[in-house]
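Interim report, section 4.2 (structural modelling).
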Amino acid sequence: MAFLEVKNLEITYTIGSGSLKAVDGVSFSLEKGQSLGVVGESGCGKTTIAKGLMQLLPKNGSITGGSIKIDGKEMVGLSREAMRRMRLKEIAMISQSAMNALNPVYTIGDQLVEGIMAHSSLGRKEALRRAVEVFEMVGLEEKRLKSYPHQLSGGMKQRAVIALALTLNPPLIIADEPTTALDVVVQDRILHRILKIQKEINSSMIFITHDISVVSEICEYIMVMYGGKVMEMAKTDDFFRHPYHPYSLGLQNAFPIITEEMEELISIPGSPPNLQNVLPGCRFQERCPFAEQRCRDEEPGFAEPEPGLLTACHFPERVEEFREKAAHRDTWETVRKRLIEEMKEGAAHG
Amino acid sequence: MDEKPLIIIENLKKYYPVRKGIRELFNTKKEFVKAVDDISLTISRGEILGLAGESGSGKTTTGEIIVRLQEKTSGEIVLDGHPIDDSSREGRKRFRREVQMIFQDPYETLNPRSTVFETIAEPLKIHGWKDKEKIYRRVWEALEIEELKPPEQYLFSYPHELSGGQRQRVAIARGIVLEPKFLVADEPVSMLDVSIRADILNLLKGLRRDMGLTMLYVSHDLSTIKYICDRIAVMYLGKIVELGPVNKVLSKPMHPYTKVLFSAVPVADPDHVKERIVIDDEVPDQINLPVGCRFIPRCPYVKDQCSSCTHELFEYAPGQFSACIYREENLTVNDDRIIDEP
Ligand SMILES: Nc1ncnc2c1ncn2[C@@H]1O[C@H](COP(=O)(O)OP(=O)(O)OP(=O)(O)O)[C@@H](O)[C@H]1O
Ligand SMILES: Nc1ncnc2c1ncn2[C@@H]1O[C@H](COP(=O)(O)OP(=O)(O)OP(=O)(O)O)[C@@H](O)[C@H]1O
Ligand code: SF4
Ligand SMILES: [Mg+2]
Ligand SMILES: [Mg+2]
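Predicted structure of the assembly:
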């Protein structure tokens, strides 16, 4: 059994009298030392998965199905207190919001030492030694332990947050857009630091980002989400060489790669589905150029066209044809026209 | 291009005085952040110039000065033969018509209480358009150019009813409705999802093709710069350190900072073998600048002579300028600057 096993995870938010399933039947597993990149458009459920794993969902959100096993132990249904102990020691989270969560009135060092002491049996002296050690790992000078958060630059603060998260050698690291607001040069250093530490302590890592090229550089596996569901999951290298899912094919044409000559970028027309009113069938149907009646009637399960590559499309065997067509602008223009027609009809009928 | 450039920027400076704490109050030495420090540039008609560089290097400041959202400290900017600070009535009016800016965050720039129609019609009304029929037709056209189709669907929508990409289109429609000559686009796609960025980039390209629009495209993202720009200028601490055709600069960067920046861009290609140049990632001191080259504290190739650098741009290859005193082929890594990392 893998170190982390997530099965059919469902997370639901209630809003007013209604509800929406932000994470809808997500399954994946990770061994120790492996890293998984989670990508997808804004609102596809990435942060919700992270918060679900940490069981730090907002009040109106809850896990409504599935299981999360860490080292064979079921996490769903654990008491709040048990979960609190798990966090930091077993699961560490690095996020943008953690940066703002640094307490402004205590020095970074104090916060680090307190954190270590609260979650381990170390005394103050040993905790301080450990703090110096992790500061070194993330490339901060020891004297910065005496700084208050406001005295640090964005990059330094982010490194302090990483230090804070990694002090106890957590076996599972969840990083939610840890470098999004940072400069490219700073981002590059921080990513490689996270990677180095993850390898050193042999943790599993879930790395959430909207920047698919970051995943290409630092994760072994990739999971592409759309509207709360997994569309494709694969080894990163396989995925970037030959993706299968129509959504992935669309993404591939949508962003420029700096080392390549690109003729033309093509967007995926339309916008993500309204999760408060999901249609039956494939979640990508509205924006998919290859959608047929079957896609509207029946939800695709996972196919495994290559060992270890999962795609949630009805037609994995037509991938050659899809790849060829997806590279043409016209293919996606038909989607735009279809969406415009539907919008006109919608307006006419109501 | 033998024609005169549309925009000529000469020795542009913008210095912000540093606010002092009580303790330094009696220290009479004035301190400044030299956000833009003596830059000169031209942009040809129909050209898209990319402005790249580290956060805080002065990109936005430069853009905002060109559209006169900020006053310059000194220097000269001439647009189509007229200094932009021509303060005659006629001059001000012409300027407001000919120069427009779009921003990173479409959520903030649109008035939440105005419909799409009102938003796009406003600049027309400000410029004295009275004929309702004509205004309506022009707004309609702008929406069609922006591919907000069918326009009747959008005319009376409010910003909150639109997606991020649609909002950015409305912002651009508002920017181009007066058929400006020059557009500054400051990170116009960085808030948008990858799946729809291409639309906005293609739209900007199309405006250049169809309207001959000249553009300054400000972004820290070298990949999108490579996609839509003809030339690129790279800034570091208020100075232009490299300038040249985008394909040359991004295939063979010359200035050490450009090399570092380029090497830090993540590449979505598992077969790409990357040469990483690792440097100190600490944010540089913007007030106490080093003598000579501003990149000295972090440059992996630094040598003693670097303190004599004046940031003069040398044309080391046709059309490609670098402010480094060394040609690219003469750069050698300084052993003291090697940072251990896997
Ligand atoms: N507290 C909440 N109450 C109700 N709905 C929520 C709440 N938080 C998130 N959602 C909804 O759940 C869905 C998933 O949101 P989530 O934040 O997980 O997306 P994300 O993939 O992290 O997006 P982003 O890239 O913008 O961070 C979205 O449709 C969002 O609107
Ligand atoms: N109104 C202001 N008052 C004082 N300093 C300012 C002001 N506006 C900008 N600065 C400073 O000028 C420098 C350049 O800022 P600018 O916003 O032009 O950078 P930028 O290159 O656009 O950065 P980013 O990539 O983060 O947008 C920064 O050091 C900034 O702190
Ligand atoms: S199942 Fe149908 S709609 Fe979904 S991705 Fe495949 S072809 Fe497109
Ligand atoms: Mg998120
Ligand atoms: Mg800026």
